[in-house]
Specification:
Strand content: 35-45%
Shape: globular
Largest sheet: 6 strands, antiparallel
Oligomer: single chain
Order of helices and strands: EEEEEEEEHEH
Number of domains: 1
Amino acid sequence: MDERRRLGVEMLLDGHRAACETRYVEAGAYVLVLCTALGELGFELHSVYVGHPGIATHVTHLVLSGPPSQAASETMTRAKADLPVVFARRRCLFDHLQRLHDELTGLGHQAGIEVDDTGVSELEQPSSLRPL
């Protein structure tokens, strides 16, 4: 498994820029993990996408927040055309960021997310499919 790579994601939270870090790791072409942490809130979102061109994509989101410490997870199946893990990883990132936005809004925050597109281009192609 490759090491976690940082993505250029910035968070505006309640009108100010918040310390935020989004990283990803892949386990071959068919598994993508995205993690975002907001230290000042004690908030983390971990999303795992597992899929193959011939089957639906399975998604699990784990939300950690606190204090007090709270954890929640949800697993769902999405149509392979909606979130093709191998060939459209950008869609997985945007699904993760949408979930992040929804979770923060649900906690009563106004959230805005900015993505540096140049940093996302590396995410697009699984490392196992890149030329040597």
